[in-house]
Amino acid sequence: xxxxxxxxxxxxxxxxxxxxxxxxxxxxxxxxxxxxxxxxxxxxxxxxxxxxxxxxxxxxxxxxxxxxxxxxxxxxxxxxxxxxxxxxxxxxxxxxxxxxxxxxxxxxxxxxxxxxxxxxx
Length: 121
Known about the structure:
alpha+beta; GMP Synthetase, Chain A, domain 3; three-stranded mixed sheet; 3 helices; 51% helix; globular
């Protein structure tokens, strides 16, 4: 059975579990002050379950924070292995900046612009 974007329900469930666990690990286990204000927005797991893309929202310098998260990926994965021991394997983690907020903000600006054009006639 396929999900809405070509993913299976299984990969969606695994992504949801990993999202919650990675959020907690980032908040409680990582002591680097540069990762303050990092929010895990979503996790997409590949069909073969070998890789997972972790989408994060970052308040500060995103390039530096992404580099810290990538360097911490092995530690986070090992911690996931301990916490999610019921899972057969934990995928490799890849951190990327979530741009959906910017996208939706831009759409909202366009819609507001359209409404302003209509009322200005």
